[in-house]
Amino acid sequence: MSGLMNAALILAIAAVVITRQFSARRIASDRRWWIVPAVLAVMALREPGMIDPHHQIESSLLLGTELVTAVAIGAGWAWTTRIWTEPDGAAWSRSTKASGAVWAAGICLRLGLFGIGTLLGVHQTSSALMLGLAATLLVRSGLLTWRAQALEPAATGQNQGQNQRQSPAYGDGVGRVLRKEHL
Predict the structure, then answer these.
(1) Is residue 172 part of a domain?
(2) Which range marks the domain in which residue 79 is found?
(3) How many domains are contained in the chain?
(4) What pTM was estimated for this model as a whole?
């Protein structure tokens, strides 16, 4: 796949993932949460030129920094996401304003890394960005699944809406009850 196609795919996936996360979404209880990140990683790793042969050390350092940044963004995104359970035991999530700030900071960091690479004369492909996106999604999904498993189902009965079990998310008021959004 060409670099332009990779960039378009990355932008499309990121746009879909980010916009979907700001509405209430059911957390999949199956064990397939890692498939999309795995497919992205395979696509990124099969592309040649992730490491610039003329600047191997600099290119490797930039790739390593990209992956560390991606893991930090995924962890930050997962910990700033509100999760709760419904009486039927289904776990739900929705990103908060703090999650948006994590994404904005991550984009700025990635632009900074790209700028540093350009200043150093390192040839950069979209494969590193795709691999970073895969790492971000893998970490976020894994942490959300782990957090959701720790929640108990909401209480049933008269005060059902008031007894939803919530997991605190950084950057958002904990006392508020979130309701499902209907599509």
Answers:
(1) no
(2) 3-152
(3) 1
(4) 0.76
The answer to whether the beta carbons of residues 63 and 127 sit under 8 Å apart is: no
pLDDT of the chain, 183 residues: tens digit per residue: 566 776 777 778 778 877 877 888 888 766 788 888 999 899 889 888 888 889 999 999 999 999 999 999 999 999 999 999 888 888 899 999 999 899 889 989 988 998 999 999 998 888 888 899 899 999 999 999 899 888 876 655 444 445 555 666 655 554 444 555 544
Return all residues near 180 (Cβ < 8 A) that are at least 6 apart. Answer: 24, 86, 92
Alpha-carbon torsion, ordered 164, 169, 175, 177, to 10 deg? -40
Whether the CB-CB separation of 107 and 73 falls below 8 Å is answered with no
**Residue 158: inside a domain, yes or no?**
no
